[in-house]
Amino acid sequence: MQWPANDTLLSVVTIDTANHGALTPAKAVGTQAMAVDLAASPFTGAYDLDDDSTPSMLFKNIIIFLGILIPWLTVIFAEAGQHATCKLVGSIQGTLTLEERDGDLLVEGTLTGVALGKHGIHAHEYGKTSNNCLDAGGHYNPDNVDHGGPLDAIRHVGDWGNLDATESPYQLSFTDNVSKLSGPKSIVGRSVVIHEGVDDLGRGDNAASKLNGNSGARLACCIVTPA
Predict the structure, then answer these.
(1) Rounded to an integer, what distance in angstroms lies between the CA atom of residue 80 and that of residue 85?
(2) Catalytic annotation on 155?
(3) Pick from 4, 42, 119, 199: most CB atoms within 10 A?
(4) Given 119, 122, 155, 190, the catalytic residue
(5) 122 an active-site residue?
(6) Is 139 part of the annotated catalytic residue set?
(7) Distance CA 102, CA 97 (A)
(8) CA 37, CA 40: separation in Å to the nearest integer?
(9) pTM for this structure?
């Protein structure tokens, strides 16, 4: 394998010294850059990477290092993108935070103005909060299946069931293993809606049960936005 001559190799590494030297691009506290100009280098020429001479070993080590670093950085940047927020508008106030953890979606937030009891909460198709949240459309349902509960095998991606407000302000916290912040089941750019009534989880005896769980009017909604 030959390394091309008269080329420039640039490697930029960001180091988070506060995190015990771990490479953390999102929280960098220092940056170091190394540039090797082969045209001006004493190593100028075409190098055989099967050779054990010092110049060739240098490039071997750089290639090995980049082969390890690039996939690692890809994972880090991917993980850094798996966060979102959703600021409610309507009769219920609060900001939801959404985070993917080990394949599950964690949804948390402090809600004020919510009446005590159970309220249907779902991810809806469109990222719109206008017209008293009606423009958010129906539940996000890319698989075109019946409405169900969050633990059902057959359910909408957006079927999160009910929140159960036992006090006000109410600390919302739950996980869902179907909806995501990336991929074909991503709810980023879509909306979250909190309803007035209880979601019957598709167990009702009418057509609306299989569509929206008879959850009733829409009290508040928000648009899921990458953090």
Answers:
(1) 14
(2) no
(3) 199
(4) 122
(5) yes
(6) yes
(7) 16
(8) 6
(9) 0.67
Chain mean position to CA 184: 12
Q: Which CATH number does the domain 83-226 belong to among 3.20.20.70, 2.60.40.200, 3.40.309.10, 2.60.110.10?
A: 2.60.40.200
The one-digit pLDDT tens for each residue of the chain (227 residues) are 444 444 443 333 333 434 444 443 433 334 344 444 444 444 444 545 455 566 666 777 777 777 776 655 544 444 444 999 999 999 999 999 999 988 899 999 999 999 999 999 999 999 999 999 999 999 999 999 999 999 999 999 999 999 999 999 999 999 999 999 999 999 999 999 999 999 999 999 999 999 999 999 999 999 999 99
Q: List the chain domain ranges.
A: 2-80, 83-226
Q: Is 50 assigned a catalytic role? A: no
Q: Which of 155, 176, 195, 200 is catalytic?
A: 195
Q: In 3D, which of 104, 143, 122 has the Cα closest to residue 201? A: 122
159 is catalytic: yes
83 labelled catalytic:
no
- The token pair that represents 93 in the structure block: 């106030």
